[in-house]
Structure formats: C-alpha cells, structure tokens
Amino acid sequence: MARSDDGRLPRKLYEKELLRLQAELVKLQEWVRSEGARVVVLFEGRDAAGKGGTIKRITEYLSSRTVRIAALPVPTERQRTEWYFQRYVEQLPAAGEIVLFDRSWYNRAGVEHVMGFCTKEEYMRFLHQCPIFERLLVEDGILLRKYWLSVSDAEQERRFRSRLDDPMRRWKLSSMDLKSITHWEDYSRAKDQMFLYTDTPEVPWYVVESDDKRRARINTIAHLLSTIPYQKVEREPLEIPARPPSRGYERPPRDMQTYVPDHAAKLMSA
C-alpha cells in the first residue's frame, strides 16, 4: 500500500477511499429512512482531536432532512435547573433519522468536571445515571455508537498553533480550548474515569487514533458502517418527463427585478 513520507495516509488514497465510504453512507441513509431506524453517533475527544472534520466528511453527501448535527451551546439558566440529560433527549432522532453529536452529554464527565462547572455530587450522579440512560436508549431500539478521538499532546498543540495563525480557522480556537493544555493530565484522568463507568457491553466506547486526520476519518466511517446492518434500498425508477408546449407564458422584463451583480464576470475580465 502506498505510504506518505511522514507515515500519514496519502491524500490520493484517502480521497479515493473516502468517496467509496461516502457512497456507502448514502446507502445507509436510504436504509435508515426506509426502515424507520434511529441512529445516534457521539463524537468525543480533546479539543482539536478532529471531531468536526470527521462529522463534516460523514455528512457531505447526506440530506439534512435525514441527518442532523447536534452541537449544543452552553446551557441556559433554565436548562441548568432541568434534569441533566433533558436537553439532549430533545435532540434524539425520530424514525428515519440520524443524529451526530459534536460533543454530547459527556461534557459533564469532561470539561464540566475538570473546570469545576459542576459539583462533585452532580458529577458522580452523572457517572451513575449515564449507563442507565444509554441502556434505555438501546432498549428502545436506538442504534447508539460512541467514538473517542484520541490526539497526542504534541499534535494537539500543533493544531492549536496552526489555528492561531490562520484567520479562516481562528474562530475554532477559544481560551477554554487553550486551558486544555495546562489541564492535560486532569483531562486524562477524567477520560479514564469516564471509560471506567460508561464503557459498557451494551454501549462500548470505540477509540480512534486521530493524530493522522485522514486515517481517523477513514477508520471511523468504515467502522460505523460495519456496526449497522444496513442494506441497499432499491429506489423507484424515475424518468424525467417531456416538457409540455408553451401556453403563452411571457417572462416579465428583467429590469423589473433586482439581480445580484455579476461578480464572476469581473474575475473573468481581470
């Protein structure tokens, strides 16, 4: 197999396999819609581990009517008084839907616990309730998958620095992200504790090595597809009809409507 000089998956090989897997994801989408299945996929990991990029490749050719990304903001004051899992329950799929969580209820086991945003009692209650909550989802027929994208400290810092110098990606970096460097060992302990309580036979954690983003995306998508018993759904054949003859319609004059300026024409004439 072709290899790049730095050991990372070569771009051409990656792009070819990614396109093949994305075609399979389209088949999965049709099966989910046809069977009325409900799929939930959680993506967790340290900041800059590659969660967003993996989700983007999964959804690239899928319908937003079937596949939805849940990336919840900081809870409101009202939500802080609710049962912790309540606002996540609202995001769960109905029949024929797939929901991808870009971070999930595991915020409580990670950033909330490490940064002191929840009490010790709330944290321990989460570790107790989470396996029960997930078992209820599975018993109700939801196909639940959990992925932990694992990035090294050196690679995380490299990605932080690249974002800091890139105006197109600077928005992806926050002060809270940078604190993950000084709290590296705290997050490591929190992750180990989280796995101890929530890596269950019913809903196991799947760890993805993500220092090589291309490899991580390919491995995650291939594994996800392998865990769901989808089949190709034969769609009803479609035929584009002949356009009927005109019945006298006349388009209004162009000067009666406001058109977007032809910016592309300026580029071509430059």
Automatic annotation (TrEMBL):
The keyword Transferase is assigned to this record: yes
UniProt GO molecular function: polyphosphate kinase activity
UniProt key word Transferase: yes
Entry keyword set: Kinase, Transferase
Enzyme Commission designation: 2.7.4.-
Enzyme class per UniProt: transferase
A Pfam cross-reference name: PPK2
Domain Polyphosphate kinase-2-related positions: 11-235
Domain of life the protein comes from: Bacteria
SUPFAM superfamilies: P-loop containing nucleoside triphosphate hydrolases
Family note: Belongs to the polyphosphate kinase 2 (PPK2) family. Class I subfamily.
Subunit note: Homotetramer.
Function of the molecule: Uses inorganic polyphosphate (polyP) as a donor to convert GDP to GTP or ADP to ATP.
Name this protein carries in UniProt: ADP/GDP-polyphosphate phosphotransferase
